[in-house]
Specification:
With 184 residues, this protein is mostly helical. It has 9 helices and no strands. It folds into 2 domains: 11-56, Single alpha-helices involved in coiled-coils or other helix-helix interfaces (Up-down Bundle); 60-157, AhpD-like. The protein has helices at residues 17-27, 32-37, 41-55, 61-74, 80-90, 95-102, 110-124, 131-139, 144-167. The longest helix has 24 residues, at 144-167. This is Carboxymuconolactone decarboxylase family protein.
C-alpha cells in the first residue's frame, strides 16, 4: 500500500512551501495534516482559508468547538478529534463540554446541545432538516447567519476529516494525550 508523504518545507511542492511556513508561524509547528495536504497546494490553501474563516464566524469558542467536534466525531476522525480537543483546551472551552462531545453525550448547556443536534442533522441529512429543527435552532438564540456558518465550518471539517481518514494521518505529539477513536 502506498502511504502519503508528510511534507516538510524542504520536501513540499514549491507552491506549498510558503503555506507550510504560514502554518509553522501561526501554530509553532507544521501539523502532519498540513504536511499531507501540502502535496496539493490548492488543498492546503483552501483548508487554511476555511480554518481562518471558521474562526471569524459569529460562533463563540465553545460553539465553534461544538461544530468542529460534532462533525469530526461523526466522521470518526482519529486525528481531528484529538487536535480539536487540544485546540478547545487552549481556547478555555469547558472540559465537560469537550468530554460530552467526544463521548457523543448530551451537552450540559441546552443552547450548545441544540447546536450539536442541528449540526449533526445537517450533516447526516445532507442539509435537509425539518422545519421543527430550524425553529428549535432559532428559539435557542441562533440566527440564519449561524445556520449558514455551520455549513462553512462543516466544509473545513469535511476536508480534514476525509483527508485524515484517507491518509491515516499520524497524530502530532501535542495531540497524543487526547487520542480518540470512534469505538472507544
Amino acid at each position: 500500500m502506498t502511504t502519503f508523504t508528510i511534507h516538510t518545507k524542504d520536501s513540499a511542492p514549491e507552491d506549498s512551501k510558503p503555506l507550510l511556513k504560514k502554518s509553522e508561524d501561526e501554530m509553532g509547528m507544521i501539523p502532519n495534516l498540513h504536511g499531507i495536504m501540502a502535496e496539493s497546494p490548492a488543498t492546503l490553501e483552501a483548508y487554511q482559508t476555511l480554518h481562518r474563516l471558521a474562526q471569524e464566524t459569529a460562533f463563540s469558542k465553545a460553539e465553534l468547538t461544538v461544530v468542529w467536534l460534532s462533525v469530526s466525531v461523526e466522521h470518526g476522525c482519529g486525528y481531528c478529534v484529538p487536535a480539536h480537543t487540544a485546540i478547545a483546551k487552549k481556547m478555555d472551552v469547558d472540559d465537560e463540554i469537550i468530554t460530552a462531545l467526544r463521548e457523543e453525550k448530551k451537552l450540559p448547556d441546552e443552547k450548545l446541545e441544540t447546536l450539536r443536534q442541528t449540526t449533526r442533522s445537517i450533516l447526516l441529512n445532507r442539509s435537509n432538516i425539518s422545519d421543527s429543527e430550524r425553529e428549535n435552532f432559532y428559539k435557542a438564540g441562533f440566527t440564519h447567519q449561524h445556520l449558514l456558518e455551520i455549513v462553512c465550518v462543516m466544509c473545513q471539517k469535511i476536508m480534514s476529516n476525509y483527508i485524515n481518514n484517507l491518509a491515516k494521518t499520524p497524530l502530532d505529539d501535542p495531540f497524543k494525550d487526547f487520542k480518540w477513536s470512534k469505538n472507544d
